[in-house]
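User: I'm curious whether this sequence folds into something compact or stays loose and floppy. Could you predict its structure so I can see for myself?
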Amino acid sequence: MTPTEQIALWADKLRDVSALGLHFAQNIYDKEHYQTVQDIAMAMLALATGENLAAIEPLRTPIFTRPTPLCVGDAAVIDEAGRMLLIQRADNKLWAMPGGALEVGETPAAGVVREALEETGLHCQAVTLVGVFDSRFYGSSRHHLYQFVFLCKPIADVEMTVASHAHETVDKRWFAEAELPTAIDPNHAARIPIAFRVWRGESPAFFDTSNLVADKHE
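Assistant: Here's the prediction. I'll summarize afterward.
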C-alpha cells in the first residue's frame, strides 16, 4: 500500500466514524467533535487525491454525512465431525456464532476469521460464503445491518490460543446440529441451520432477495 493509498484509507475510516457519530450523537458537543472529524476526513481525502478541498465539499451531504448500513460478519466454524463452535455472549448470555463488526480496510472473510480468533482463540480458515443477510428480515437489531456469514474450518495442527476478547464471552463449546442449545441469540437462530445446509452441500450461498422472491411463489 502506497502512502497515498494509506491516507485515503484513513480518510475513509474517519468518514465512517464521523458519519455514524453525527447520526447518533445526542448533544451539541459530540456533534461538534464528530463534525471536526468529518472535516479532517475530507481534508485527508483531498490530500490523497490531489484535489482542491473545494472540489471535495460537494461530497459532504451525499457521502460524508450519510452512514450506510453497518456491516457485521459471523464465522460458522464447523469441524470434521460436523460440530459448530458457538460462543455464549457476555451481554445477553445467549449462544451465537463468533463475529462482530467488520472494519474498514479488511475483507468480510478476513473479518470473520479475525473475530473468531479474538472471541474464541481458534485459528480458522474461511471456506465459502454461507450468505449475506439483512437484519430487517433475520433477527432484530437496533440498527440496520448487513450480516456476512462464512463457513469456516479449524486450521489443522494449530492449537487454540487465549482469546484476546474473552471478556465478550462467558463460554464456548462445540455443538452437533441435533444438539444445539435452546438459548440461541435471535439474530443467529435462523442463520445457523442455513450454515449447516451449506456445509452439507445442500444449499448455495444465501441472499435475501432470492429467498423473498421464492417465498412469494410458495
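Summary: The chain has two domains: 3-64, 70-216. The beta strands are 70-77, 83-89, 95-96, 99-101, 124-134, 145-154, 169-176, 206-207.
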